[in-house]
C-alpha cells in the first residue's frame, strides 16, 4: 500500500440512505463524521461515487450528506457489492484512480462485499472505520476484522485527510483543520 494522495484517490460512499441510517447502531455519529470526510475530500477535489440500495424502498442519500456532496448522481444498486453493478464499475474506471477510500453502511454486508471485490480486482482500499456502521455493533466489528484481515487498510477520517495533506504548509491545511475541529 502507498500513501493516499489527492491525485490517485476516489471516495466511495455506500448506502447512506434516509430509512437506513436511523437503524444503525451509531447512525448520527457515523453520518456526522462521514459529512466531515466528504467535506475534506472536496477540499482536495477528490471525486466521490455514491451508491443507493433500492432507493424506492430505502430512500435517497440523507439530506445532510446530500448537502455535503453537492450536485451528484448516485449509482442505483440491487447487489450488495457495488462492484457487481456495471455503472459503478464504469464510473470507478473513469476516475483512473487506484486508491479507494470507502465509507458507508452496512459494514458487514455492502461495505464488506464491495471492499473484498475491490481488492480482488487490484484496488488499494482504505476503510474509514469511524465512517461505517451496522445495525448491530458486533456485525460491524467482525466486518471490520474480516476486511482488515483480507488486506484493507483500517483508518479514520482524520487520518485520511491529514495523510492527503502531508504538510501543515500545504494548500488546504486551514480548511482541513477547521473541518476536524
From TrEMBL:
Assigned keywords, A-Z: Hydrolase
GO molecular function: hydrolase activity
Residue intervals of the Isochorismatase-like domain: 9-158
Pfam families: Isochorismatase
Gene3D superfamilies the record matches: Isochorismatase-like
InterPro entries given in the database record: Isochorismatase-like_dom, Isochorismatase-like_sf, Isochorismatase_domain
Name listed for the protein in its UniProt record: Hydrolase
Amino acid at each position: 500500500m502507498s500513501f493516499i494522495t489527492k491525485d490517485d484517490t476516489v471516495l466511495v460512499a455506500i448506502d447512506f440512505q434516509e430509512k437506513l441510517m436511523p437503524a444503525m447502531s451509531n447512525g448520527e455519529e457515523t453520518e456526522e463524521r462521514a459529512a466531515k470526510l466528504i467535506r475534506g475530500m472536496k477540499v482536495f477535489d477528490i471525486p466521490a461515487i455514491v451508491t443507493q440500495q433500492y432507493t424506492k424502498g430505502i430512500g435517497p442519500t440523507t439530506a445532510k450528506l446530500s448537502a455535503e456532496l453537492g450536485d451528484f448522481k448516485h449509482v442505483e444498486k440491487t447487489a450488495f457489492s457495488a462492484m457487481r453493478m456495471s455503472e459503478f464499475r464504469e464510473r470507478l474506471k473513469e476516475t483512473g484512480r487506484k486508491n479507494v477510500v470507502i465509507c458507508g453502511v452496512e459494514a458487514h454486508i455492502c461495505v464488506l462485499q464491495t471492499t473484498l471485490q475491490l481488492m480482488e480486482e487490484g484496488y488499494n482500499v482504505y476503510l474509514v472505520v469511524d465512517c461505517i456502521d451496522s445495525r448491530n455493533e458486533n456485525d460491524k466489528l467482525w466486518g471490520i476484522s474480516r476486511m482488515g484481515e483480507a488486506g484493507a487498510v483500517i483508518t479514520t477520517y482524520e487520518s485520511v485527510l491529514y495523510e492527503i495533506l502531508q504538510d501543515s504548509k500545504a494548500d488546504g491545511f486551514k480548511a482541513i483543520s477547521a473541518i476536524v475541529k
